Amino acid sequence: MLPKVEIPNTPVHNAPPPLIEVSGTHRDLGCQIGEARREQIQHSVANAHVLIDQSYDQLELTWQGAQIQARKYLPFAEERYPQYVDEMRGMAEGANVPFDDIMTLNAMEAVTMDALHLTRCTSFAVNEARTADGHVLAAHNEDWVPEDEDDVYVISAKPKDEPPFLAMTYGGLLPNVGFNAYGIAQLIDSVYPTDSRIGIPRLVVARAVLAARRISGAIGRALVPHRAAGYNHLLAHESGEMYSIEISAKRFEIHHGTDGYIVHTNHYLAPNMKEIESDPEELISSRVRYFRANRLLRENSSHTIKSLQAIQKDHVNLPNSICNHAVNWSDPLDREKTINALVIDLTAREMHICWGNPCQNAYHTYHLNA
After folding, report:
1. Does 14 reside within a domain?
2. Which of 60, 127, 284, 313 could form a disulfide linkage to 240, CB 3.0–4.6 angstroms apart?
């Protein structure tokens, strides 16, 4: 057992992440989220504006320029997924911010050409073959800029024409990490392909996956034509089926969890995807986390929610560890921390989420009331 590491300047949250319950049309969902989290959405827009301003020397991009770039992606989103554009419009109305700002937030990775080197998320899942109670569990550490940590919240949604879902998000971003009433969970990790293009923004694609009713449908939605680029979508189903879908704008590879567990971080695993990976030498810490999580999962054949939470708190290779801490603040484009960590129990239809670094904060339980 490694000694417990106390890291200074790690925020402690004495309350659980806020839960927002919404229902109705997609416009209704967005409006209700915007009204309930108005302050946090406005805060996230201000944070993004500051980040762009601080990074002008690297990006040569102003906030107005970012808005102009984001508009280029809008027609692709409106053509394929108008309902999620409606959610963004509703969120803008409810939060009293311009729609252009919400669109820019949700296309930020694209408009900055992946200059945001946010490469430290970790996702993994285990099925009934490797859990003590036969449940299917999925876990994710969400790493992002520290300023957005205060804007984290949980959404319990009942869309009028799509499956109910429970998801984590923050600020003005569409929900994407979570699970739905059909027993499908999605965890996403940024990857860095060289074939990115103007198309459907990655977050819109990921939002669409949450509405899938079958695992094949979830995979199909992740691979939608005219996508701008791609994430890795780690998908788990209540049946115990687990997949990692590595995606770029024009390529993909599907990995199947055959040993009772599956892991993904922020680099491509498939040979055909490695061929188009941008600056793989910058992703060394992603590989360290990948191998570390693999080892910890493989060593235990009777995992529980607690054992997965222990992995989420791991500090090997600190600060670029699974539990990631903001230590180097020098480059605004390359600083982040774990702003939340969550474990989804698909069998029990519940989410256990920690607000902030899991080494210093408690987990809280939310249920999907479908």
Report:
1. no
2. 127
